[in-house]
Amino acid sequence: MILSAQNIGFTYGEQGQKGKFIFRNLSFELKQGEVLGILGPSGCGKSTLLKVLYGVLPLQEGKIQILKTLYQARSAYPKNLKKEIGYIPQNPALALNPYFEAKKALMEPLAIYKGSFHNQVFKEIFDTLKLPISLLQLKVSQLSGGQKQRLAIARALILQPKLLLLDEPVSALDVSIQAETLKLLYAIKKKLQTSMIFVSHDEQVIRLISDKVLRF
Fold first, then answer.
1. Which of 21, 47, 58, 198 is the most buried (most CB within 10 A)?
2. How far apart are CA 121 and CA 204, in angstroms?
3. What is the dihedral sign for C-alpha 121, 200, 103, 187?
C-alpha cells in the first residue's frame, strides 16, 4: 500500500473560530502503480487535499499512512516524505523559476533534498517524456506551455518518488497537447510503476487516466 487516508478533514478559519470544512471524514487507499482520480468542480477542495498530502497545509482530522510513515492530525508533517512524493501544481510556473536554465530548475530538488543524481534515471525520464536534451540550455521563460508542463513533471520525478500528486496538470493546455501529456503520464505509470493522485474537473480526462475515481 502506497497511501491510506482515514477520516481526514481540513477546515479554513481562524484559530478558535468556527471554520468552514473543505472536506471531512474522507477515506481512500492507493496501491503501487495505481492512479486515483479526484473529480469535482472548481473550489470544492481538490487542490486543498493535495496540499494536505504534501504538507503545504496541515492535516486537521484523521490520519494518513504514506508508505511506512504515519502522519496524524495536528502533528508535524514528516520531513522524510518530501523525497518520496512529487508534487506538480496546477500552474507549472509555480514550480519553475523563470530565470533559471531548464537544467538548473530540473536539478533543484536534488540540491534541496540532498538526492543522488543517476544518469540512467535522468535518461529514462527524458526519454519517456520525449524531452530533447537541448532544452536544458534554455531559460524556463523561453519554453512553451507544454514544455514547461513536461519539465515540471520531470522535475517531480527526478528524486524517483513513489507517489506523484498532479493538480489539474492538463487544464491549461491545448487539446492536442492535453492528449500527448496524458499519454506521457500513462507511460510513466507503466514504465516506472509510479502511483499518482490526479486532480481534475474534467470527467473525460479523469476516466482516461485513472484506475479509480473519488468524487468531491
1. 198
2. 31
3. positive
How many Cα atoms within 13 Å fall on the side-chain side of residue 30? 27
Question: What pLDDT score was predicted for residue 17?
Answer: 53
pTM above 0.85, yes or no: yes
Which residues neighbour 140 within 8 Å (Cβ) at sequence distance 6 or greater? Answer: 96, 97, 98, 99, 100, 101, 102, 105, 148, 151
Q: Would you state the pLDDT for residue 31? A: 97
CA angle 192, 195, 199 (to 5 degrees): 125
Q: What domains are there in the chain, each with its CATH number?
A: 3-13+21-215 (3.40.50.300)
Distance, first Cα to last Cα, the chain = 23
Residues of the chain with pLDDT under 50: 15-16
Grid cell in block for residue 75: 502533528
Note whether 166 and 199 are within 8 A (CB).
Answer: yes
- pLDDT value of position 8: 98
The β-bridge partners of 165 are 87, 197
Considering only CA atoms, which of 65, 77, 79 is closest in space to residue 1? 65
DSSP 145-178: HHHHHHHHHHHHHTT--SEEEEESTTTTS-HHHH
Report the distance separating Cα 47 and Cα 53, nearest Å. 10
